[in-house]
Amino acid sequence: MQLSCWGMGRQAYGLALAGAMLLLTTPSMAFKGIRQIPYPQAEQVTRTAAEAVIVRSGSESCLRGKLTNALLDLTMSCSATGRSSSLCKLAAQIASQEGEFSLAQMTTTAETLLDLLDTDSVEP
Known about the structure:
Radius of gyration: 13 Å
Number of helices: 5
């Protein structure tokens, strides 16, 4: 699966993150009118984004967008399915942080995500 890179400014990322976190704090209203991908697809998007960061397949801003979007998708999917794995907790924690990832932070996060994807994949 290949993720495309399209421009989204810092303010748009902040708004998307803030909106997702607001939705996650009100579970009964969380996904009305919002596109939510199935959990297995969210895992695959996260894996693809993490691998792209590791091999640096794109500009830093593109990789930041891929990883941020993947974490938002994963966080929303975890919440919708009631999952509380280490992967879901990490995704929610990172998605709620303010500011931009540095390339070093993205790489560390990507490595951790891949490790968790491999170990948490057996959890329902």
